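[job 0417] fold request received: Serine aminopeptidase S33 domain-containing protein
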Amino acid sequence: MKRPICIILFTFVFFCIDSTYAINPEREYIRTPATENWNYQQLDIQTSDGFCLNSWIYEANPETDKNTVLILAYPDAGNMSYFVYHSIILAHAGYTVVTFDYRGFGESQDFEIRKELLYYNEFALDLEAVIALFQRDLQIINLEFGECRWVR
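[job 0417] inference complete; emitting structure tokens
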């Protein structure tokens, strides 16, 4: 009888002490396209409400260029540097890949984030600003919670 009570008590205490957050931005980059020797362009993107976002545009492999832009929209934690390898694989396959940091993430402009919230509507404005830059065939890959959605 004591063992189940101890397990329940331990679980309760663990989750009370553990700091779990829905939104967890990171400012420091763990890698860049340059550290992996890939050609890219750093671009500042202005949102409709005046925020400045940092983005990296990975050049498609000229031998396999599909003349298609993929925008990689990552989850609500970390920053775009966690997806450098993903982006290079896609660029090597012939896609121009665009990654960006949401406001308050990476080197994008500061934005007060309450980590216990699930989402900010302003993040949709960030994605809209990135989409507005490209006029050719465009696709969006949303990486979120173990799933991957590819939108044309």
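[job 0417] notes: The two ends are 56 Å apart (CA to CA). Residues 4 and 37 are 54 Å apart (CA to CA).
[job 0417] exit 0
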